[in-house]
Amino acid sequence: MRHYRLGAHTKSDLKVHLVWIPKYRKQVLTGEVAIRVRDLIRQIAAEHELEIISGKVARDHVHVFVSHRPTQRISQIMQWLKGTSSRMLLQEYSHLRKKFWGRHLWARGYLAVSSGTVTDEMIKQYIDEQEGEQVADDSRFPIDEG
Q1: C-alpha separations of 129 from 117, 120, 122, 142 in Å
Q2: Is 126 a catalytic residue?
Q3: Which of 4, 93, 110, 126 is catalytic?
Q4: Of 47, 69, 105, 115, most Cβ neighbours within 10 A?
Q5: How far, in Å, CA of 16 to CA of 65, rounded?
Q6: How far apart (Å, rounded) are the C-alpha atoms in residues 33 and 99?
């Protein structure tokens, strides 16, 4: 059975796999710091109504698989996760402040991969089977002459 998030006028099942790294891919996410990163991610997710499906803190990167609302942009989610966790970790651990001067713990980018049970081919097939008005010969966006 699928688990849908319900809104006032919406029903959604949006999930994304997120990965990010510390600056210079330094292997600092170990021991007490790794535990604190995990706890911060859980806390930030709860504050913003993100549902963590799975996650892992490795020595030099973080994986999080989350379900989110349609109104939440992925860039916004990453801003919450990286911004808050960076600020808190640099406040709490002086050895991180020495390694990551300039108040930047995380590298600038991130990886985001959406997830779902519907493939690109299934969507194309569904659209092809719909009825409508056929006009031009634009093969990638036909108008059906039903």
Answers
A1: 19, 14, 11, 11
A2: yes
A3: 126
A4: 105
A5: 6
A6: 14
